[in-house]
Amino acid sequence: MGEFRMPSLGADMESGTLLEWRVKPGDRVKRRDIIAVVDTDKAAIEVEVYEDGVVEELLVKPGEKVPVGTVMAIIRSDADQPREAETKAVGAEQATTEAAPPRAQKKEPPAPPPESPAERVKASPYARRLAAEHGIDLKTLVPSGPHESICAADVKQAVEAAKAAGPEEPPPVAAPPRAEEAPAAAAPAPEEVSGWKDPEAMRRAIAKAMARSKREIPHYYLQTRVDMRRTLGWLESENRRRSIKDRLLPVVPLLKAVAMSLQEVPELNGYWIDDRHQPQEAINIGIAISLRQGGLIAPAILDADLLGVDELMAALRDLITRTRDGRLKSAEMTAATITVTNLGDLGVESVFGVIYPPQVALVGIGKTMEQPWAENGLLGVRPVMTASLSGDHRATDGLQGARFLDTLNRRLQEPSKL
Amino acid sequence: MNEEKIEQTIFNILKRIAPESEPSRLSADDNIRRALDIDSFDALNFFIQLHEELGVEIPESDYGRLNTLAEMRRYLADRLD
Predict the structure, then answer these.
(1) Which CATH architecture describes the domain A198-417?
(2) What's the topology of domain A114-179?
(3) Which of the ends of chain A has fewer CB neighbours closer than 10 A, N or C?
(4) How do residues A157-193 score in pLDDT, each as one tens digit?
């Protein structure tokens, strides 16, 4: 049985107002379907459902304001079917770790999963999700994770192999086709579901999150100067052979390098929740995006480490466009496992950011500017970018932070491998 | 295409990118990015739309020469004869 609760769409959110349901009782829903629109202090957000199932009952009416965590709907999940009965414990465990948005874990720190029945393939929840998304059968993979379980890396490898082998197959549709569009669902007035809230409400929301961060998180800060000559040279030659609309922004190779460095220093990718460091497997990079009317918001590019530079550019373009139009999805608001802030456009040399709770790190990118650079006893002029890391000292030490910045620097010296 | 028409096209695009601004109030030598708070993403969109409307493909290496209205008018007029 699934309870669909008012999600926490940001560390600063205490309650939300249901604007509309996009489903009605009896509708079949698939994981990632948008089923409701919720109004927060910052914006109207489209909220996704996290498991397949059938909508049994809607408990909250449009216009009602309820606290985060309030049960809003009952969704009978496919996992409730009798065939799963013998693996119920496993199923339920997975439902909490895999299905709930990260902050929902607050209430139940995940326990070690119970022994699975022999026929069930052992795999991490994230590996399962990835496999489902890419249409890969877990049984065909060779496990390399602990206790012979399949981890995300195994799936990623298979995805890469499949990509190399030929055109990607469309992911299989797990649930039967959806029932026809609900004609009953009220069509909302467009200005209700899109567009950002007034600047004052957003300012208060930012104030709350940032004050909490500085109250609770003992930040440490590191910075390093990076010679950007190779990366910029690579970018220039890449962009020269692209038409204008396919060109990459300089931040794209930076984001890619951040994602790759997090694979090497995974401790910085994740959360601090309930006095516990909880590194995450998925690398969802929150991007601080400023809004024209003031304020900022940091939605995430999901699974950034799985995207090539062109896909990353497309994802960034899509995310920025929808952020500025006020059309974000709930997963993008809740799933960031780290945040990148880039103030380079404004001519700022370095930025030491405030970590967005419950994340444990923030990467700051400054402006790339020509500077004197000494190397091998010679003085030259190079385009230099200052990268910084703000780390949560409860979760990691300067050592991990230093390893991350060093890795980032090395990645940016080998741009063709990005 | 005359410079007036070029300028009108530039204004229309800027207005779409920065709806709250009044591009026609820019003076010829204002740095547009700074005056209208245009970041690198907006700037790329600006050049894409300029390409779509005027058919001028501007190489990335020329971005630095296109900071003000006066510079843009001259650059585009040269290529739109």
Answers:
(1) 2-Layer Sandwich (3.30)
(2) Dihydrolipoamide Transferase (4.10.320)
(3) N
(4) 777 666 665 443 333 333 333 333 333 333 333 333 3
Amino acid identity of A413? Q
User: Is residue A314 within 8 angstroms of chain B, CB to CB?
Assistant: no
CATH class held by domain A1-110: mainly beta
Q: Which of B19, B37, B60 sits opposite A247 (nearest CB)?
A: B60
Residue A384, phi then psi, degrees to nearest 5: -120, 135
ipTM: 0.85
Q: Please identify, in words, the CATH class of the domain defined by B3-79.
A: mainly alpha
The dihedral through the CA atoms of A222, A227, A231, A232 has a sign that is positive
Chain A residue nearest residue B59, CA to CA: A240
Q: From CA B69, how far away is CA B23, in angstroms rounded?
A: 10
**What would the two tokens of residue A353 be?**
């950011």
- The values of phi and psi at residue A12, to 5°, are -95, 0
* DSSP codes joined into one string, A217-282: --EEEEEEEEE-HHHHHHHHHHHHTS-GGGPPPTHHHHHHHHHHHHHHSGGGSEEEETTEEEE-SS
CB contact under 8 A, B57 and A243: yes
pTM: 0.69
Cα A195 to the chain's mean position, in Å?
Answer: 22
Cα distance between residue B57 and residue B51, in whole Å: 5
Q: How far is B16 from chain A (nearest CA, A)?
A: 12
- Find all residues with CB under 8 Å of A109, minimum gap 6, and list them: A273, A274, A276
d(CA A120, CA A243): 49
| Helix (H) or strand (E) segment spanning residue A201 | helix A199-216
Chain B residues near residue A240 by CB distance under 8 angstroms: 59-60
- Alpha-carbon Rg for chain B in angstroms: 11
Contacting A with CB below 8 Å, chain B residues are: 18-20, 37, 39-41, 44, 47-48, 51, 57-61
Give me the half-sphere count of Cα atoms (radius 13 Å) on the Cβ side of residue B8. 5
Interchain pair B40, A290: CB under 8 A: no
Nearest-Å Rg of the Cα atoms of chain A is 22
Displacement of CA A161 from its chain's centroid (Å) = 24
Report the DSSP pairing between strands A338-342 and A285-287: parallel
Within 10 A of B17 (CB to CB), how many other CB atoms are there? 20
